[in-house]
C-alpha cells in the first residue's frame, strides 16, 4: 500500500494519522477512516474532541503519578486505603488490572515506564525520585514490586531494590507461579520451576 | 474490562470513543489512548484535526461518487481515461485496489455499499439512479461488475444486471479463478471448479 494513490489528500492525511497508532497499518487505517466517513459528523466531532481534551486536560496524580482528573487521585486521597503499603507498577493499565482484583488496599506508585537501554529509557525518565521522597518520610512500611517479568521489568526491579536497600522498608514482589485455571503440563518450565521453589504451606481455605 | 474502574473520566471517555471503531476493543482502545498520552500535544492536535477535516471537507465526485477533494474526481476529469467503460465497485478501497494494478483505463462508479437485507441496505441506499442516468446518455459501451463474491455482492450484481438489461451495453464481470501464486491444492473447490468452467485458450505471453 506504500505507493498507493489516494483519490483525496484529506483522506490520505487522515489515513496517515491513524497509521501512526501502534498496531495500526495503512490498510486498517483506511478501514477506520472509511468507517468514520459513514458515521454522522457529530460522532466524529465527539471523537476528535475526546482526543483534544485528553491532550489538554488529563492530569497525573502528584502523589502516585497515576492518570487522574484531579491533582491527587481518588486512591491516594482515600483515607481508607493503607498508605504504608506502596505497590510499584509500570503504568495505569497495571493499576487498573490490580484494582480489578479487589485484593489490594494499599496505594500505588506509577513509574511511567521500565528501564530499557534499548528504548533509551533510563532511571531518570521514571518517577523514581518522588518514590524515594516517599521513603524518606518514613511512612512507608512495605514496597510491593508488581512489574512485568520481562528483561526490562527485572532490570527495573533490581535497580530499585539496590537503590532503596538502605531504607528500613520491607520489599516484596508479587508471586510468580502457575496461573489459576492453567493446566500444569502447559505451564512453561521456568514458571513451573519457580512455583516449586516458592511452594507454600497447604491452605485448605484457598481452594 | 466492562466493569473496569477508570481512574479518570477523561481517560474513560477517550477509551470509549476509540472502542467505537470497528475491530477495536476496550483493551486496544486503552493501549491507543495511553500511546496518545505519551505523544506530544501537537501530534494529537494534528490527529484530532485530521478527523474534523475529514468530516467537514471531504467530497464525493458528482460523477462517480468516489471520495474526492473536488467536485469531479481526478479520474473522471482525466480526458485520457476511456469514459465508455464503467467499472462498478462497492467503495473507494476497491477503486484504489484496481488503480494499483495499472491495468484499467476506464472510469468507475462507486455504489457506496452492497444490497444487504440483513444490514437494511436496499437499492435506494446505493448510487444506482445516477448510474442509470449515465446509461441513458448512451455514451457507455461496457459495464464491468467488480463486486465481492459474497452473497451481498452477487445479489447486487444480479439486481443491477436485471435492472439494466434493456440498455444496449455489454455487461462483464471480473474473472474468478485460482489466484496467481496460489498452490492449486489449496484453492477452494468452488473457485477451482469455476476456473475450469471458465478456462481460457493457452497464452504463452501471459506466463
UniProtKB/TrEMBL annotation, chains A, B:
Top-rank taxon: Bacteria
Entries under CDD domains matching the protein: TOPRIM_recR
Gene Ontology MF annotations: DNA binding; zinc ion binding
PROSITE patterns, sorted: RECR, TOPRIM
InterPro entries attached to this UniProt entry: DNA_Rcmb_RecR, Rcmb_RecR, Rcmb_RecR_Znf, TOPRIM_dom, TOPRIM_RecR
Keywords: DNA damage, DNA recombination, DNA repair, Metal-binding, Zinc, Zinc-finger
ZnF start-end (C4-type): 61-76
Domain named Toprim: residues: 84-179
UniProt entry tagged with the keyword Nucleotide-binding: no
A Pfam family assignment: RecR_HhH
A Gene Ontology biological process term: DNA recombination
Protein family according to the UniProt entry: Belongs to the RecR family.
Annotated function: May play a role in DNA repair. It seems to be involved in an RecBC-independent recombinational process of DNA repair. It may act with RecF and RecO.
Protein name stated in the entry: Recombination protein RecR
Source species of the chain: Marinilabilia rubra
Gene: recR
